[in-house]
Structures are given as C-alpha cells and as structure tokens.
Amino acid sequence: MANIEIKELIDSGVHFGHLTRKWNPNMAPYVYTERKGIHIIDLYKTAAKIEEAGSALGKIAASGRKILFVATKKQAKDIVADKAKSVNMPFITERWPGGMLTNFVTIRKAVKKMAYIDRMKKDGSFEALSKREKLQINRQRAKLEKNLGSIVDMTRLPGAILIVDIKREHIAVAEAQKLNIPIFAMVDTNSDPRPIDYVIPSNDDASKSIDKVLSYLAESISEGLADRKKSKEQDAAPAAPAKAKEKVAAETVEAAKPAEAKKEEK
User: Fold this and answer.
1) Residues 61/90, Cβ–Cβ less than 8 Å
2) Tens of pLDDT along the chain (266 residues)?
3) d(C-alpha 235, C-alpha 188), whole Å
C-alpha cells in the first residue's frame, strides 16, 4: 500500500464527522476536536486504521477468499462498484437481500436461476414459450441481475465484508456477526463502532472521502491478489524441472539396459 498522506485525507474531507448532537459516544476515541458544531475525526488514527485494515484485507485476498463490498447509499454506489470490479470482488450496491449471508444457499439458488434462463436462451427452448411467458422471464432475469448480478462468482461465503455506512447496512453487519465473518467498515461519528472488527473512522457521506479510503483498501487487496498469483507461479515452477529430470532419468535407464533385456521386453 502507498503511504497514506494526511493532507490527501484532509483534501478529500475524510475528517468531517457529523453534528455534535448526533454523535455516538463510543466514537469518542476517534474524535480529535469539535468545530462549529461538527466533530472532527483524528486523521492520524484514521491513517493507522486504514493501514491495519489494508494489511488484513491483503492477507484475506492472498488466501483466495472473496471480500464482499457493500454500500447502498446513492453517493457510494458507483464508487464501490468500480473499486470492487477493479479487484474482481463481489459487491452489493442495490437493496441488501435479507439472508444474503445467513441464508446463502437460497441466494445461490436465485443466482443459478439466472444461469438457467441464460441456458434457455442459448439452446432455443426460450423461443418455444409464449410472448407473455417470455416477458415474465425477462423481467425476472432483469430483477435478479440488478440485485444479484454482481455476486455471480461468489460460490461460497465471503472471507470478509467491507461496508460503507454501518447504520444504513445494519442488517449486513448483523448477518456477518452471526456467522463470524470479519467486518471492515468506514465508521462515521454517528455510528457505534463496537460490532466492527476493523474500524476506519472516516466521513462515510462524502463521495470524495469514500473514494479516497476505498482506493487505499483496493490497492492492498490488489497487492494480496498479486502475491497469491506469484506464489502459485513459484509453486508451479519447480514442478516442471522435476518432471524433466524424471524423463531424463527414465531415458538414461532405458539406454543403459543391455540389448538382450530390451529384446525380452519387446
């Protein structure tokens, strides 16, 4: 991960919290001061927490597990989708489907339904349906794509969940807690950080702030994926020379056999 510059965090407005009357006292350790009725977040603690979270996310990515990005608020949707796509991770930016984690088997069935409809269109069976049935199936496919299209490749529960605005995504937090899935989150001064495993005290309302924090985290995930790829290549590399040595050894043994033995084998 690149060095986190405090000035960049300030320029992105990461330090702006909520109105002092709306704060959650459990965020007190992360508040630096109050200015004009607004809490100011301690950016040195934010930088330290970004590094800590980034390191953990990098390890999870390196292990081959998926990291689920979650943000359904308007100003975060596109940013989260872009960052998740850049590291090939699943994301939820529409409504959180109840039971997304705790009832994952049912969610997977819905995803498989999409694949089934796609197969129908390819093998021609879709064309045999009536006009009304086609319309209904197309509507169902569009709805599934909108809500679950971004998690098609998530065949098992994620290794971690990354959330923007834990107050809005409280159901996601509760489900991850129930299944002991590590929770990484941008937490503003109006939220309770206690259920979160990796708290990143920051402004979760401004798009610039969200983009800046997620950029650092996505970079760490990308580094973890690169380490995983490198490790796989290193594991595969010794195998090739070993096979070559075995082949040479076999050929040497064959060549060393007496002519009479070779005839007997034939």
Assistant:
1) no
2) 668 899 999 999 999 999 999 999 999 999 999 999 999 999 999 999 999 999 999 999 999 999 999 999 999 999 999 999 999 999 999 889 888 999 999 888 888 888 888 888 888 888 888 889 989 999 988 888 888 878 888 889 999 999 999 999 999 999 999 999 999 999 999 999 999 999 999 999 999 999 999 999 999 999 999 988 888 888 777 655 555 566 655 565 555 555 555 555 54
3) 43
In this prediction the pTM is: 0.83
- Closest to 217 (Cα-Cα) out of 66, 17, 54: 54
Rounded distance, CA 264 to CA 148, Å?
Answer: 66
What's the longest Cα–Cα distance across the chain? 100
